[in-house]
Amino acid sequence: MSLLPLDDSRGPLPAPASVPAAPSCTPPATALSPPAPCTSSASPTSPTSPALAVSPAGSPAAARLLRRAAVLLPVLLIVVWAAVDWPSVRGGTARLASADPWWLLLALFFTCLGWVAAAVVRQGSIPDRLPPGLLIASQFAAGAANHVLPASVGAHAVTLRFYQSQGIPLARATASIALYSLAKPIAKIPVLLVFVLAFPDMLELGALVPDDGTLLLITVCLVAGPAAAALLVTLVRPLRRPVLALVRTALSDARVLHTRPSRVLALWGGSAATPVLQGCVIAAVGASLGLPLSWAQVVFAFLAAGTAVGAVPAPGGIGPVDAALVLAMTAFGAPLGLATATVIGYRVLTVWVPLLPGALVLSALVQRKVL
């Protein structure tokens, strides 16, 4: 017989009231057994715990801030550079204000063709098919970055980011940049030979011919550069694998590209046309100011100046190339002041006029995640 009074209950027991989840305890096996430890149904690391909740918005907020800074950075660099070089901008703009507008319009046309030629060269240096519109836009933006950073670092960085956004592997993208960087100076040599054969009087331009000491220095640099790179790769083991992979990719892509006539024409034809178009811009600006030189003389002067001092790592070639170009045109018989005005007008038209639109396009491409 049970000692509990529940045996006398005449109906079912009432349902227990709904209570929050409580810790579940295992009842003791006997009256003298110690109670088992209680376990709570709520985990101590539950995300509902206010003490241990972590907000996931920190990392995306930092990414958004970084992207906004990358969008505004090109425009800020343009403003700083304009403030530093404001006398040149003001003087060049004043000179162009008195020039023939039709010749300036033709110079602007050749400037636009230069961006198209740059896009053609980029397409010819890679086997993958690139979207033409975005490719031209990226080269327009790369022009703005190229005039801010020396040795074409800005243009190469923009092109590299564009390649990667199109799904091109890093090794192939880097090999493409190395290929068209090598093709541009090589393609300029036959252009110079054509000018010399077509216009023998161009050989009278002896002011830009370097002396023996300069030739020796150039030779040492050309030999020491590859030798130092080879020594660095040999001694530093972590560099061997990526460098060898880059070389293999570059050789493989170059072999594939030169089996396609369209790529060969785009790479080498565009590389040869680019300096000629730039020289045509200078010739058109000179004609608008009344420069007493023929079109061929101005183009050849630009080619010779770029060949003589184009290896100096200045932003967009500004500085050494400008001085050599003024010297070359004066050697052909142009007045010093008019040659200087032509070079300044050329820089304003090709650098300062498209610089702000190029920076805005660069910011737009960054915002759209194309770069």
Question: Summed up, what is this model?
Answer:
With 371 residues, this protein is mainly α. The protein has helices at 58-84, 86-97, 101-124, 132-146, 153-165, 170-198, 212-235, 240-257, 261-289, 295-309, 320-331, 336-367. The longest helix has 32 residues, at 336-367.
Outline the structure in words:
Helix content is 67%, strand content 0%. With 371 residues, it is an all-alpha fold. Helix 4 (132-146) runs antiparallel to helix 5 and helix 6 (170-198) packs across helix 8 (240-257). The termini are far apart. The model is unreliable at 1-11, 28-33 and 39-58 (pLDDT under 50).
Strand content: under 5%
Structural class: mainly alpha
What's the average pLDDT? 75
Total of helices = 12
Using only C-alpha atoms, the radius of gyration works out to: 34 Å
Helix share bin = 55-70%
Shape: globular
* Low-confidence runs of at least 5 consecutive residues: 1-11, 28-33, 39-58
**What order do the SSEs take from the amino end to the carboxyl end, as H and E?**
HHHHHHHHHHHH
- Cα(first) to Cα(last) distance is 87 Å
Most strands sheet? none
Number of extended strands: 0
Element layout with pairings:
Blueprint lengths: L57 H27 L1 H12 L3 H24 L7 H15 L6 H13 L4 H29 L13 H24 L4 H18 L3 H29 L5 H15 L10 H12 L4 H32 L4
